[in-house]
Design goal:
By secondary structure, the chain is mainly β. It is built from two helices and 16 strands. The strands form three sheets. The protein has an eight-stranded mixed sheet, with no helix packed on it. It has a four-stranded antiparallel sheet with strand order 1-2-3-4. Strands 13-14-15-16 form a four-stranded antiparallel sheet, with no helix packed on it. It starts with 11 loop residues before the first helix and ends with a strand.
């Protein structure tokens, strides 16, 4: 059995310094140009961290945000074609009892530019799109939104394994139009999903899984795509010894 070894870890609060709220709820990370950009569920500012994860790194600081929403952020994605970043807000009211996810767009210096809806209906404000990544097909940018619940549902139905879903969006005139859906393998025993990444024809995602005895581990799965179908699937589990 192959193993992944933990090389280094650090608390974000210790890296940024004591002036930062110790109750930061980190929810997404982007590795770009040798540094990490971290977003938080309970903070609008974006953290920039040096790759050494050391408190004395001069790269470490918060990028203040004065515009846009103030909380509810779940993931971050980067579009190398436009040099723009997108931060995902899980679910917000959109009138008429509807809920939808939204993305905020930032320039190369993480200055807020705009926001736009991801045009896909959700059941609840706290059970929506949990992961976000960016891909390109035929010269166009697409956003992949990973549903937190199975079959994009909330409650008991969303916790029933085997219904993982990724929604595919393309930029429209006023919002991001939903143009497709990816069904994840029914063999994945995830009760819900938390993050997604894509590289070429490979998609990876993560979530905490539970064994029958109650022990929880971090699960990571990757799928290699070929001809529009999943050609290879790998699942990795991580836990503290």
């Amino acid at each position: 059995m192959e193993q992944l070894l933990l090389l280094h870890e650090a608390k974000i609060h210790d890296i940024l310094g004591r002036h930062v709220d110790p109750r930061l709820e980190a929810s997404g990370v982007l590795a770009k140009d040798g540094v990490f950009y971290v977003i938080f569920d309970n903070l609008a500012d974006i953290a920039r961290l040096g790759s050494r994860l050391s408190s004395d790194d001069t790269e470490n600081h918060l990028i203040p945000q004065e515009h846009g929403h103030r909380r509810g952020f779940e993931d971050i994605a980067y579009d190398y074609l436009s040099n723009r970043s997108y931060v995902l807000i899980e679910s917000l009211p959109r009138g008429g009892g509807r809920f939808m996810a939204k993305v905020q767009e930032y320039d190369e210096s993480f200055r807020y530019q705009s926001d736009a809806w991801l045009d896909f209906p959700l059941q609840r404000p706290n059970k929506g799109l949990e992961g976000l990544t960016c891909v390109h097909r035929d010269g166009e940018t697409h956003l992949l939104g990973l549903c937190e619940g199975n079959k994009c549902k909330a409650g008991t139905a969303g916790r029933t394994p085997g219904g993982g879903r990724i929604q595919v969006f393309r930029r429209g005139q006023n919002h991001w139009d939903r143009v497709g859906r990816i069904r994840l393998p029914t063999t994945l025993s995830f009760e819900d999903y938390s993050s997604i990444a894509a590289d070429g024809d490979r998609i990876a995602f993560t979530q905490a899984c539970a064994y029958p005895d109650g022990m929880k581990v971090l699960c990571m799965a990757s799928c290699d795509l070929a001809g529009g179908k999943i050609a290879r699937q790998t699942v990795v589990q991580a836990w503290d010894e």
